[in-house]
Amino acid sequence: MTEIKSGFHLKEILFRIDGRGYKAYKDITGHYDLGQFILHIDHVQSDPFAPPSRMRISLTQKIAGFPAHLQNSKIKRIALEDFLTRAFAMAAHKVSQRSGTGTSGLITIDQPGQEIMERTSMRVNKDIVEARFMLGLPARGRKILARQAEKIFFDFLPEIIENSLIYTNLNTQKLTRHIQIAEDQEVLRAKLKEKNLVAFVGNGSILPRESGISDRPLAEEKALPFISPEELEVSFHLPNQGQVKGMGIPAGVTLIVGGGYHGKSTLLKAIERGVYNHIPDDGRDLVVTVADAIKIRAEDGRSVVKTDISSFINNLPGGQSTKIFSTSNASGSTSQAANIVEALEAGASLLLLDEDTSATNFMIRDGRMQMLVAREFEPITPFVDRVQELYQKFGVSTILVLGGSGDYFDVADKVIMMQNYKARDVTNKAREIANRHKNFRRQEQKTPLKEITQRILLKESFKLGPKDKIKAKGLTTILIGRQSIDLNFIEQLTHPSQTNAIAEIIRYISRRYMNGKTCLSSIIDQVLDDIEKYGLDVISPFYGQHPGNLALPRKQEIAAAINRYRDLKVEQMKLLD
Length: 577
Hints:
Layout lengths: L3 E3 H11 L12 E4 L4 E6 L9 E8 H4 L9 H22 L11 E2 L6 E2 L5 E3 L3 E8 L3 E2 L2 E2 L1 H19 L7 H20 L5 E6 L6 E3 L2 E4 L15 E6 L3 E9 L2 E5 L6 H10 L3 E2 L8 E3 L4 E3 L7 E4 L17 E3 L4 H14 L4 E5 L5 H4 L3 H6 L14 H8 L2 E5 L12 E6 L2 E4 L1 H10 L18 E3 L12 E4 L3 E4 L2 E4 L9 H17 L7 H15 L20 H9 L6 E3 L5
Parallel strand pairs: 1-2, 16-23, 16-24, 19-22, 22-23
Antiparallel strand pairs: 2-3, 3-4, 4-8, 5-8, 6-17, 7-8, 9-10, 11-15, 11-18, 12-13, 14-15, 20-21, 24-25, 26-30, 27-28, 28-29
Helix pairs in contact: 1-4, 3-4, 3-5
C-alpha cells in the first residue's frame, strides 16, 4: 500500500537538504498530502541539467467538481483531458520561472498541438483528476535551493490547480464547446460511410495554415473560407452543431487538379489531418477523413524488408525477385510501391497522394515513352493502371493531387479543380476532354492485382543487449540500440508524444508479443486492444507512476515506424504454410 506522508514531512526534508548536493533531492521521492491535493514525486532528476523530475498531482472530484456528463463517453473524456492539459500548461507558464541552474524552477506539461488526441498527461474519471507534469527542481550550480522548491510545492502548485483543475474556476462555456466540437467530429467521421464518403470538408473551413512552421490557421482576414461545389455538397446532422454542410468526397478515385499555388496541396493536407479531431477555431474542425487514411509518397533511401511489391514492380534486371523484396536503399518507385503495400497490410481504406512528392515513373508512363521503351524492358506497372483496380478489388479509395498528367482523367470517378482556393466539380469536363482527345497510351497491367501478403514479425527483430535502449528523439527519430528509425516522411505523425508512444509500443511488443507466429498487423491490433482495455498508460515503463509524455498514434504510423527499422526480421506468412 502506498504510504502518503504529510506536507509538514516534505517541508522537514527540504529544510534538512537545503544547500546540500543535488543528489540529496532523491530524499523527497514519495507521496504527500498537501491538503487540497496529493503530490506524487515519482522520479527525481539526478542533475539540474538532466530531464526534469516527474511528478503528479491528484485531487478528488469532490474538490475538482467536473460533472459526470462531461466524461460519460470516451471522446468526451479525451476532450476534457485535452482541455485540462492546455489549461494546466497555461497556468504553469504564468507562475513558473527559471530560478537557478538548468531547468530549475520550470513547471511543464506535455503541451498538445492543434489536434485533440488521447494522451497520458491528464487522467480524469468519476473519482479523481490527475495531472502528470515535469518540474526542474531548483539549484544554484549543483547546490539545492530548498526554499524555492518549497515555494513551488506550497504556493505555485495550489495556484496552478485553482486556475486549471477546478471546474467552477474555468471558463465552463469554453470547456463545453471544446468537448462538443470533438464529439461532433467523432460522430461525423463515423457517418461518412453511411453516405459512401471517404472525406468531408465543411463549408466555412479555413484550410491554409499560418506559415510553413505553424499549424495554426491563417488569419481570417487573409484566408478564404472553403465553400463546397454545389454538385458535391452534402449535409449531416450533428449532436451539438445541428445541420452542417460541406463537400463530400465519395469513395473511389478522386483527383484534385488546378494550377500551381491555387490550393490543391492545401486541401489535401487538411484531408490528411482529418484523421484527427481538432480544437475549436482551428479552421479544420469540420474537416474529417476516414480514420485509416494514409499519405503515400516516394521515400528514396528507406529500407524495405521482404515485401511483395510485384503488383507494381516486376522483372527487374538481373532477375531480382520483387515478391520477397528487400533493400537497404530503396529508389523512389520501389519505396512508393512498398509504402502502398505496407499501408494495405496495415488496413488502410484510403490512399492520399500528391504528384509533387511521388516518383514520376511510378505514377505514369505516357504513350510516347511506351513507344520508345518497350514494355518488356519496363519493370514498373504505373499507379494509373492500378488505382481503379485497388478500389474495385479491395475497396481502397485514392485521393490524388495532380497538376501535370491528364492521363488520370480516364480512371477518375471525381475531379475537383482548385482555382484561387475555390473548389469546382469539373468531373464532366474532364471526361469530355478524355473522350474527345483519346489517349494512345496502353494499359500496362500484365497480371491482376495480388492479395496483400501479411508478414510475420520474428523474435529476433528487436533483440537488444542489456545496455541497449529504445527511445524517441523529437518527432521524427526513434533510437533502438545503435540503430535509428527515420520518420521524417511519415507525414501524419503530428506530435513528439506520438513518437514517444511508438517507441514504447515497440518495447511493449518486444516483451509481450514476439512469438514468431503472429503477423505484424495482428500484433499491433493486440497492443491497441490492450490500450483500449487498460488505457495508454499500459505501454509505459512508468506504468502506475508517471507516463506523462505519450499520445496515441494510429495503427498506420506504428506499422510505418516498424517497417522502417533497418534490422527488422520478418517472414511472409505464406512461406510458413
